[in-house]
Amino acid sequence: MKGAIAMMAASAALVAATPAQIQARASASSSAAASGTSSGSLPTVTVKGNAFFAGSNRFYIRGVDYQPGGSSGASDPIADINSCKRDIQEFQKLGINTVRVYTVDNTANHDECMSALAAAGIYLALDVNTPKYSLDRGDPAPSYNPTYLQSIFATIDAFSNYTNTLLFFSGNEVINSDNTTNCAPYVKAVTRDMKQYIGERGYRSIPVGYSAADVSSNRYEMATYMNCGTDDQRSDFFAFNDYSWCDPSSYTQAGWDQKVQQYGNYSIPLFLSEYGCIKGPRNFEEVSALYGTDMTPVYSGGLVYEYSEEGNNYGLVTINGDGVSETTGFTNLVTAFKNAQVSGDGGYRSTGTPSTCPAQSDIWEVTAFSGQELPALPSGAAQYMKSGAGTGPGLTGNGSQNSGGQSSATATPGSGAVTGAASHSGTSTASASSAAQALLVGELGVAPFVCGAVVLVSTLFGASLL
Predict the structure, then answer these.
(1) Where do the segments described as Disordered lie (predicted)?
(2) How far does Cα 242 stand from its chain's mean position?
């Protein structure tokens, strides 16, 4: 990836709201007390067929990716109420209904910012991984352990009661090449575990899914993999990052027509978790296509990368202390959103069937857990399903990748439970690969390549990668 929500009532067609309408709603809404829930002014979003719905209205994601500080900062933008309120003013100018946040502190209080977002008609799409608590794409098995899952579950605890928590991402760009597809069963296992935890803890059914990298060779295989198998294994949605439309372009020139055809029978919601090429002028011509009648039967909108400038030229604004300077891209996006109003159900499919699991190939190297087989829940993590995760580690914990306790067994598909003969050593299993990561951090001053976490910053590859 290139770096590192909106209704007052169920009957409001949130995606068609203008910035002025959103501002009016914000002014009419009262702030919620700091009680662990949002203001309650927004209806919860659910999955129906291959689309999202807020009440009886189709919900199209119209948003931006939001992580001021970029991949190297590892800070929580919605724990700082001053910056949150500053940026909400810009969100309202854009007319968006969703922000995606890549990193949060699961020990911080987010009541005030989540309430302010809700009052502005904005939902949160949240990544549950952090730089220290994530899967290691180089050696995923040891990093899938109780310490890691405890952090993820604690994040779910922290955000499940906000009505404007739109969805959770179980991973982000974990697979970024053909030879890292062996990570897929662990990503799917984490997705399954999150869904079970939400159910076991009695939370509302918050959608859980994956954000895939802009890798054309295996992106469709990952999409089908995350949608195959039993209901307890399958994702609630699938998202991918797509930078193939670079202005000037078109629906056919960018190949988006072919993707619509390819995903035409996909039975869960599909959307772009990042888009917005910078190779040409950022006129955001793709917005009209994304919310047009050709794409709405298959796509549920998307998130523009990214809100703030982090040294990679993708920023819509530049943050200077308490001030914000808007770029030409910001102005162009405002216009694009205004001109791309969408209403109705968009031709969504109310029913569908699961995908067929992809077969092993040169571009899909899943061998240890083929088909519907998945790693079993590590035995040390079973307690969280019964008793809750407890206090999370936040952003300053010791990390999870080498904490031990990985699963070495296969879960039974369709059982609705993810226990099994999993091992839990409870000891550190530091390896040569982790030593290499430590060297990378020490010498380059950046985060290591890890599954679903922040990775190399712009000075190394010319783009800030999340």
Answers:
(1) 385-426
(2) 14
Angle of helix 184-200 versus helix 146-159 axis, rounded to 10: 50
- Give the predicted TM-score (pTM) of the model: 0.83
Domain holding 30, by residue range, is 1-466
Q: Percent of the chain at pLDDT above 70?
A: 77
The position carrying tokens 């040169």 is: 362
Render pLDDT for 314-364 as a digit per residue (tens, 0 to 9).
999 999 988 999 999 999 999 999 999 998 999 999 999 999 999 999 999
Question: Over the chain, what is the mean pLDDT?
Answer: 82
CATH number at residue 308: 3.20.20.80
Catalytic residue selected from 274, 285, 306, 310 = 274
- Domains contained in the chain, number: 1
Tell me whether residue 274 is one of the annotated catalytic residues.
yes
Strands across the sheet containing 45-48: 45-48, 51-54, 57-59
Distance CA 4, CA 458 (A): 9
166-181 pLDDT tens trace: 999 999 999 999 999 9
The pLDDT value given to residue 355: 97
pLDDT value for 461: 27
Tell me the per-residue pLDDT of 394-406, one tens digit each, with 9 for 90 and over: 998 899 987 665 5
Token digits for 348?
């969504």
Name 240's bridge partners: 212, 272
- pLDDT of amino acid 404: 61
Q: What tens digit of pLDDT does each residue of 249-287 get? A: 999 999 999 999 999 999 999 999 999 999 989 999 999
Told to judge if 309 belongs to the known catalytic residues of this protein, a careful annotator would answer no
Catalytic residue among 90, 173, 306, 309: 173
Three-state secondary structure string covering the chain? CCCCCCCCCCCCCHHHCCHHHHHHHHHHCCCCCCCCCCCCCCCCEEEECCEEEECCEEECEEEEECCCCHHHHCCCCCCCHHHHHHHHHHHHHHCCCEEEECCCCCCCCCHHHHHHHHHCCCEEEEECCCCCCCECCCCHHHHCCHHHHHHHHHHHHHHCCCCCEEEEEEEECCCCCHHHHHHHHHHHHHHHHHHHHHHHCCCCCCCEEEEECCCCCCHHHHHHHHCECCCCCCCCEEEEEECCCCCCCCCCCCCHHHHHHHCCCCCCCEEEEEECCCCCCCCCCHHHHHCCCCCCCCEEEEEECCCECCCCCCCCEEEECCEEEECHHHHHHHHHHHHCCCCCCCCCCCCCCCECCCCCECCECCCCCCCCCEECCCHHHHHHHHHCCCCCCCCCCCCCCCCCCCCCCEECCCCCCCCCCCCCCCCCCCCHHHHHHHHHHHHHCCCCCCECCCCCCHHHHCCCCC
